[in-house]
Amino acid sequence: MKALFAEIDSLLPTEIYGRVTAVKGLLVEIAGPIHEMSVGSRLLIDSGEANPKVPAEVVGFREGRALCMPFSGLEGVRMGCKAVISSRESVMHPGNAWLGRVVNALGEPIDGKGPLSNGGVPRKLRSSPPPASERKRVGPPLDLGVRALNSFVTCCEGQRMGIFAGSGVGKSVLMSMLARNTRCDIAVIGLIGERGREVQEFIEDDLGEDGLARSVVVVATSDESVLMRRQAAYLTMTVAEHFRDEGNNVLCMMDSITRFAMAQREIGLSIGEPPTSKGYTPTVFTELPRLLERAGPGVEGTGSITGLFTVLVEGDNHNEPVADAVRGILDGHVVMERAIAERGRYPAINVLKSVSRTMPRCVPPEQLPVLRKAKQLLSTYTDMEELIRLGAYRKGSDPTVDEAIHRFELIDDFLNQGKDEATSLSEGYLQLANLLEMTLD
Ligand SMILES: Nc1ncnc2c1ncn2[C@@H]1O[C@H](COP(=O)(O)OP(=O)(O)OP(=O)(O)O)[C@@H](O)[C@H]1O
Ligand SMILES: [Mg+2]
Asked: Would 251 be classed as within a structural domain?
């Protein structure tokens, strides 16, 4: 009933509409009562009985006209078409019934499991993060089930981490391991601008029935409109906020945040924003923190949103603008490297280059010496790697290097983890301590 009342409240009492006066590429210009519209308002462009109505969103204004972008194709749209305002704000009504469901960026079910009932409270798609002064601090370490991350890049409840890698290095596979194995109450997963083929594989094989039962999956594949791709990211976060406010510890994952940035770039360029580095427009760099800051611990009395976002680093350049911006916003980054994947070690995480900014405070003191030792050995080996491979290092010249060579394979085996394996936090530390012949006390 609550949901129904909310729906009735959101209906506009009279039909207010403008008319299409121009279409330029993806942009539709609307003339008429533009004082009734604001950025984010929803319109339905009516191009006659033969065509379905085209949902669109106001993205800007110019010379007395509203600039809109469609959520689907513009087939059939002509000059003078009616554009009816359907809602003044972009809001969505996620509810508990969404659990176990797969939705598109408009919140419509796409899993063939029948209609979806909405929650009672309307939530803004572009809400603000909770006030910084009222937010709780990050919680205890979160078990991600992946040894390399649990031991070397420990993530806490309410922390936000980026997974950075070039294309085909294993981001999506790592994401699927995390979706299945992380110890959280609810997982909200946004598949943004990725391949259509991967969606079913992810839901059926990677997540499985049990995984899906505690998840909500939001999908916008690469062939969908830019607005759908951008909105899928906002909706993912909005659904996560709903479950956080119900007191859950939510895992919010997006694959990938780069596609969100690319969608925002396309929208920005269409409405005439100046391109800056690599064609990214200034709003990309204002929207990224506005989106990512919404993840994190909630205020007192609510749960938290742990954020894991993949970032595609173009051309394996970890300093490209989106990667740089995201790294600066988040509380940690996981670096995956092609060279490691090429030698067949998966997940191809370079633990020496990965950082968790909450790490020193959240790791139990007895585990710190083990971690320090493992890192020392790995970095000694990495420094000497070329000499060792060339045969220029003579065994016995330096005891630390000898030990590093001896242990390297063991640590590398420890970091290697099959797709279907899961190791808990404490078990991982125990294994690491054992292979270094240290004790945890
Ligand atoms: N844990 C793993 N075990 C075995 N193979 C793996 C593992 N992780 C990744 N791979 C291999 O790497 C390939 C690419 O992985 P994935 O699709 O996750 O890359 P990606 O970084 O998401 O790529 P893109 O940026 O193109 O989406 C997989 O098809 C698989 O063959
Ligand atoms: Mg991928």
From this structure: yes
Q: Of 313, 337, 360, which residue constitutes the final position of a domain?
A: 360
State if residue 259 touches ligand 1 by the CB under 6 angstroms criterion. no
The response to whether residue 169 sits with its C-beta less than 6 Å from ligand 1 reads: yes
- The domain total for the chain is 3
Is residue 441 included in any domain, yes or no? no
Q: Please report how many Cα atoms fall inside a 13 Å half-sphere around the Cα of residue 21, on the Cβ side.
A: 13
C-beta of 165 in contact with ligand 1 (< 6 A): yes
How far are the Cα atoms of 58, 308, 411 from residue 236, in angstroms, in the given order? 21, 12, 36
Residue 394, domain extent: 366-436
Domain end point (choices 313, 335, 360): 360
User: Do 194 and 326 lie in a common domain?
Assistant: yes
The residue nearest atom 4 of ligand 1, judged by CA position, is 346
How many CB atoms are closer than 10 A to CB 136? 17
What interhelical angle do 257-270 and 282-292 show, nearest 10?
A: 140
Indicate the top mutation candidate among 172, 253, 335, 337 to test ligand 1's pocket, ranked by most ligand atoms within 8 A of CB: 172
**Which ligand is closest in space to the CA of residue 206?**
1
Residue in this structure with the two tokens 């009734």, named with its chain if needed: 36
Nearest Cα neighbor of 259 from 283, 296, 228, 289 is 228
> What's the CA angle centered on 72, arms 67 and 76, to 5 degrees?
85
- 407 in ligand 1 pocket by Cβ < 6 Å? no
Looking at the structure, tell me whether residues 232 and 150 fall in a common domain: yes
103 and 188 assigned to the same domain: yes
pTM: 0.92
Domain with residue 20: its CATH number is 2.40.10.170
User: Looking at the structure, do residues 160 and 38 belong to the same domain, yes or no?
Assistant: no
- Walk along the chain (441 residues) and give the pLDDT tens digit of each residue: 766 776 676 666 678 889 999 998 889 999 988 898 999 899 999 988 778 889 999 999 999 999 999 998 888 899 999 999 988 788 889 999 999 999 999 999 998 898 988 887 889 999 999 999 999 999 999 999 999 999 999 999 999 999 999 999 999 899 989 999 999 999 999 999 988 888 998 898 888 888 899 999 999 999 999 999 999 999 999 999 999 999 999 999 999 899 999 999 999 998 889 998 888 999 999 999 999 999 999 998 899 999 999 999 988 888 889 999 999 999 999 999 999 999 999 999 999 999 999 888 888 888 888 999 999 999 998 888 888 888 888 887 788 888 888 888 899 999 999 988 999 998 998 999 898 887 767
Tokens of residue 32, six digits: 């008429």
